[in-house]
Design goal:
Blueprint: H1 10-34, H2 39-66, H3 74-100, H4 108-130, H5 138-166, H6 173-207
Length: 208
């Protein structure tokens, strides 16, 4: 059945749920970096979160195919959902590789970056809640979206310093390879969130 109205704000709940799953994933990653022995347990929890994110994305596709007029363009909904799911996938990938690489200890930089990713994911949850009323929340939405770029810059700074540190020559080559890969995943996740914030700005300007 095709529904013809533009009051389907329940669609935003899917985005809020995806952002919430991403937030849970960043918390798991941070807890794993604080206590590396928790990796197997947290990776298993992240596996189930990633599976739930896949389900939600499929539900979004199904709902969009049934609704004739959506609160925002269906293309925008789909783009936001896919990028959120990508963020969840990156957290799953990070925990999975940390376990596969048999990491025995964490680093200060990994803890700092995962802490900032928690801040970014929590901000996304709030942003998608506010998105339900774009016109009313336009200024707050723009301000919070812009702030995500500031956090991403902080992640970049930590990432560059840490990459420089691990290549100083005091770390075994195999550990360099492992940490470079893991740090790249974290930094790419931060970049993905910044890209999401830019999509949000486009949506805000289009519909506010």
């Amino acid at each position: 059945m095709i529904h013809i109205n533009n009051n389907h704000t329940e669609l935003f709940n899917y985005l809020i749920d995806l952002a919430g799953i991403f937030n849970q994933g960043t918390i798991l990653a941070n807890e794993a970096m604080l206590d590396i022995l928790k990796i197997p347990h947290h990776r298993e929890k992240m596996f189930h979160l990633e599976h739930r994110a896949d389900q939600i994305n499929q539900e979004i596709i199904t709902q969009l195919s049934c609704i004739f007029v959506t609160p925002i363009d269906r293309e925008d909904f789909y783009k936001l959902a896919c990028n959120l799911e990508d963020c969840v996938d990156r957290m799953h990938d990070f925990l999975m590789r940390t376990e596969l690489y048999h990491m025995k200890e964490s680093t200060t930089a990994a803890i700092q970056i995962t802490t900032l990713l928690i801040d970014m994911s929590a901000a996304l949850v709030e942003l998608f809640q506010l998105l339900k009323n774009i016109s009313k929340n336009e200024s707050v939405l723009m301000k919070k979206s812009t702030h995500l770029g500031t956090i991403e810059s902080a992640v970049d700074t930590i990432y560059r310093k840490e990459i420089s540190r691990i290549f100083e020559g005091n770390i075994p080559l195999l550990d360099i390879i492992k940490w470079q890969d893991l740090l790249n995943i974290l930094e790419n996740t931060s970049d993905q969130v910044e890209y999401l914030s830019n999509i949000l700005k486009e949506v805000i300007m289009k519909y506010a």
